[in-house]
Amino acid sequence: MGRGCRSAEGRDEAHDGLTGPLQGVYDPSGCGAALFAFLAGMVESERECIREESLEGQASARERGRHGGRPKVVDDDTADHARALRAEAGDAPPRRAPQAPA
Predict the structure, then answer these.
(1) Cα angle 93, 79, 71; round to 5
(2) CB neighbours of 5 closer than 8 A, spacing ≥ 6?
(3) Sign of torsion, CA 13 18 23 28?
(4) Which of 47, 65, 89, 96 is the most buried (most CB within 10 A)?
(5) Mean pLDDT in runs of 10 for the chain (102 residues)?
(6) DSSP letters of 43-98?
(7) Rounded Cα distance, 76 and 80, in Å
(8) What is the widest separation between alpha-carbon atoms in the chain?
């Protein structure tokens, strides 16, 4: 596959990847086209696998009653207290309707 790829110095560039003297140069008609196509397919496959495993883990956690994300910084009691303090100052924002849990 990379047997015909030789640099000006005569050494084989097949295993240098994107770090040799040809860094940033890609010739789609050159001998590296098949290698890049293969690597692109492998990366896509790996990404799909990671995504599937991540979704499975999230579903498993949901079944156990665990929810992802950061905890709330302001709970309902603290928000009500803050609204009451603001109402005393005469500058109260409208209260939003509670949202259904997701």
Answers:
(1) 130
(2) 12, 13, 14, 30, 31, 32
(3) positive
(4) 47
(5) 49 53 64 81 95 94 86 87 84 67 64
(6) HHHHHHHHHHHHHHHHHHHHHTT---SPPPSS-HHHHHHHHHHHHHHT-PPPPPPP
(7) 6
(8) 82
Q: Are 5 and 11 in contact (CB under 8 A)?
A: no
| Cα gap 65→62, rounded to integer Å | 5
Contact status, residue 36 vs residue 6, Cβ threshold 8 Å: no
Q: What is the dihedral of CA 75, 79, 81, 86, to 10 degrees?
A: 160
